[in-house]
Write a structure and sequence with these properties.
Blueprint (H helix, E strand, L loop, with lengths): L3 H16 L12 E5 L3 E2 L11 H14 L5 E5 L5 E5 L1 H9 L4 E6 L4 H15 L4 H15 L3 H8 L3 H9 L5 H8 L5 H7 L5 H14 L3 H24 L2 H14 L3 E6 L2 E6 L4 H14 L1
Helix pairs in contact: 1-4, 1-6, 2-3, 4-5, 5-7, 9-11
């Protein structure tokens, strides 16, 4: 007996072959109808947000020469219109090719199943960008109560791969957009996740773009940031409470970070500044005291 989780995993895996015809599978000609492109509506919840224009153009040129070889799959909606279940690229390419109609198979299935099929279809094709892929996993998990283990079996990816891809959504929005645009890779993003400070994350991300840093280099940068943070924690923990109090008072006076370090009853006071104006302000305050 299959339990519910096994049944759902099997359904995810079989859903495409059952509802989306493959070019290598013989399709009953009676099931194929010609539908006007003007009566077709894209699925607004389609997981793919970006379409490769060059590939659409290449497909359009092919359609001009030999037509649409594989019918798209549509769901009937109101006013004799149809929503795309599978085949939006063929639909877009047909419009570009100047076609008025497209061969289609009509399937009246629940919207919930359409979303699930669309997500799995794109994931199995492996041509979503990393952020689209992560969002697709997130939608399946949250909306359809699919576990990471079930996803792993359905799309043929390891569970750690799915977990790490989902983690990309924890990056700040500007970095997520950089991955979507191809400015940095998903590998860079995963390395940046080791940096907890969001501003530091963005700072390193900008360096990746400007300096062409490798993933390994970013991993090393992240490692140093973590080590320095731990070092500061240890130093702060070891400091005398009176030294910490003095640092805070001096920081308030100068409006800058102050660090007091001691070793064998000797030490130094360091005042940090970010630019020449801050330095001049600090020097003015010191000179006034004299």
């Amino acid at each position: 007996m299959e339990n519910k989780a096994t049944k759902r995993t099997n359904r995810l895996g079989r859903g495409l072959s059952a509802l989306i015809p493959d070019i290598s599978t013989e399709i009953d000609k009676k099931d194929i109808v010609q539908i006007k492109l003007s009566n077709i509506r894209p699925n607004k919840n389609q997981p793919r947000k970006e379409f490769d224009e060059d590939r659409i153009k290449a497909l359009s040129d092919s359609i001009k020469n030999v037509g649409v070889l594989q019918p798209i799959v549509l769901k009937p909606i109101e006013d004799n219109n149809y929503m795309i279940i599978a085949g939006e690229r063929r639909y877009r390419a047909s419009i570009l090719a100047g076609k008025e109609e497209i061969p289609a198979i009509i399937k009246d299935i629940p919207i919930k199943d359409i979303m699930e099929i669309a997500l799995i279809e794109n994931l199995q094709r492996e041509d979503l960008n990393s952020i689209e892929e992560a969002l697709a996993y997130k939608n399946l998990i949250e909306d359809y109560k699919v576990t990471q283990e079930e996803l792993s079996e359905a799309v043929g990816k390891s569970r750690p791969y799915i977990t790490n891809t989902l983690r990309l959504l924890n990056l700040q929005n500007k970095i997520i957009k950089m991955i979507e645009n191809g400015d940095i890779t998903a590998g860079h993003g995963k390395a940046l996740l080791r940096i907890e400070d969001k501003e530091k994350q963005l700072e390193v991300a900008m360096r990746i773009v400007e300096e062409g840093l490798s993933v390994r280099t970013v991993e090393n940068i992240a490692k140093k940031i973590i080590e320095n943070k731990e070092k500061r924690k240890i130093e702060k923990k070891e400091k005398d409470i009176y030294i910490i109090d003095a640092e805070e008072k001096l920081s308030n006076i100068f409006g800058a970070k102050v660090n007091i370090s001691m070793n064998n009853k000797k030490g130094k006071i360091e005042i940090s500044y970010n630019n020449e104006d801050e330095l001049n302000d600090i020097l003015s305050m010191i000179m006034e005291e004299n």
